[in-house]
UniProtKB/TrEMBL annotation:
Organism for this UniProt entry: Caulobacter flavus
Domain of life, source organism: Bacteria
InterPro entries xrefs: T6SS_TssK
Protein's name in the database: Type VI secretion system baseplate subunit TssK
């Protein structure tokens, strides 16, 4: 057992190397005990870069890596003499994790010269010229320094008796080249060097898409029906968690346990809203710092499904495009929408609302796009527009008059056969803006 006790410095003490070595152990233990209490799972990589050129030759090496080992030992190296030597990955390797390793601490831990490098030595000794930075003549002297005896390992023989930190997983070796398992996520202190950062950015992008869609239609109105209320509460949840994900994506050094806490809270909110207000029947996997892929993959997939399900709202807008002067069009991707939904036209212009309500049904002609020109040339009636209050599912806009489209006439039947709206504007309508909305019948 390693003792981290403080050296009892007394007057007249005969100094030996063991005194200074023990003082180093005491300071290391003190630092580890202090930092370990600051956060859960205080170990993992903060920087990791695999040498892909070596991998194509069946060798595994790291060009850069930094972090903290599970025993609390910090480490860092870049391309140079301090990085561990590359290892050969046996051709029969299948689904094995490659580890960065260090001999475990022991009461009799050894130092060794770098050129000898015994496997059980925790530190390696090397020579370095060091200047006296306080002297007026900063002469350099040769000093023996020590560094961690970090090695890479994949076989049981290479891993026995050492502290381990997974850095990659080999799926197999194909034609002499290493095929890595890209799903593997090494234990980390910061999500940035791993796929976890991509998880957060992906869900943030999906959430922002749905926020933009829901923001134009979700209303805080109990009379709007259950679907509209759920849309509004979903918008609240996505706005809240979207801001959290934005912060996490933009912040350095985010621990994966913090991302896990965010994801499971987001999962609880969205499950209650989008799955008939049920509790989460299958709980997410518990956090496992050594198996981050198995921890996060099911949660990320479930969140992606829940956010995608929001794409089936109870209300939506069909964009009206200006085809040519006075003529607009709006394509209906799903013809069943014309049978199962009510439709509203929102109109605003540089006229008083009363004038818009009075003139729009006579001067705005709407019907199937294939027949709209014939309707105009022959002065035929289009689909009847009836002034109406905006349905509770639609957020009412100031200055807009709303009209419900009559779905009982022959003109609507023609539209069902050729599902593209055509709209013609007659007369003078300065500042004209048009919106075409659909609302589910069962949501009204």
């Amino acid at each position: 057992m390693v003792s981290d006790g403080r050296v009892a410095w007394r007057e007249g003490l005969f100094l030996r190397p063991q005194h200074f070595q023990q003082q180093d152990r005491h300071h290391d233990g003190l630092l580890h005990a202090r930092t370990e209490a600051l956060r859960p799972y205080p170990w993992g990589v903060t920087r990791l870069k695999i040498d892909r050129e070596l991998a194509s030759q069946g060798l595994f090496g790291l060009t850069s890596c930094a972090g903290v080992l599970e025993d609390g030992t910090p480490f860092a190296f870049d391309d140079g003499d301090t990085r561990p030597a590359a290892i050969v990955i046996p051709p029969d390797t299948r689904d094995r994790v490659i580890y960065l390793t260090l001999p475990r601490r022991s009461a009799g831990e050894r130092l060794a010269r770098a050129d000898l490098a015994p496997n059980d030595a925790r530190y390696l000794v090397y020579d370095r010229q060091v200047s006296d930075t306080y002297a007026s003549d900063p002469r350099a002297e040769d000093l023996e320094l020590s560094r961690l005896n970090l090695c890479l390992g994949v076989s049981d023989e290479q891993l026995t008796g050492r502290t381990l930190l997974g850095v990659a997983r080999v799926r197999e070796v194909l034609n002499g080249a290493i095929d890595f398992d890209d799903a593997y996520i090494p234990p980390c202190l910061d999500i940035q060097p791993t796929r976890l950062a991509g998880y957060a950015e992906h869900l943030l992008a999906r959430a922002n898409q749905q926020i933009a869609s829901l923001a134009t239609m979700a209303v805080a109105n109990i009379d709007a029906g259950r679907d509209a209320l759920v849309d509004f509460l979903t918008l609240q949840a996505l706005n809240r968690w979207g801001q959290v994900l934005t912060h996490l994506s933009a912040t350095r050094s985010i621990h994966p346990e913090r991302l896990y806490e965010t994801f499971v809270a987001m999962l609880g909110d969205l499950s209650g809203l989008r799955e008939n207000a049920r509790r989460v029947e299958t709980p997410p996997p518990p956090y496992d710092h050594k198996h981050l892929a198995e921890t996060f993959e099911p949660i990320h997939t479930r969140l992606d499904i829940l956010i995608s399900a929001i794409s089936n709202p109870s209300v939506g807008e069909l964009p009206l495009r200006l085809i040519e002067p006075s003529y607009y069009g709006a394509h209906v991707k799903d013809p069943t929408m014309l049978r199962n939904n009510a439709f509203y036209l929102a109109v605003t212009a540089d006229h008083p609302l009363d004038e818009i309500r009075h003139h729009a049904p006579m001067e705005l002609k709407i019907g199937a796009a294939a027949q709209i020109r014939e309707m105009v040339h022959r002065s035929l009636h289009g689909i009847r527009l009836s002034p109406a209050s905006p349905p509770p599912q639609i957020r009412p806009l100031s200055g807009y008059a709303y009209f419900e489209l009559d779905r009982t006439g022959a003109e609507w039947a023609d539209l069902v056969k050729s599902p593209t709206f055509g709209l013609h504007v007659a007369g003078q309508w300065p500042g004209l803006k048009l919106q075409l909305w659909w609302v589910k019948k069962d949501a009204q």
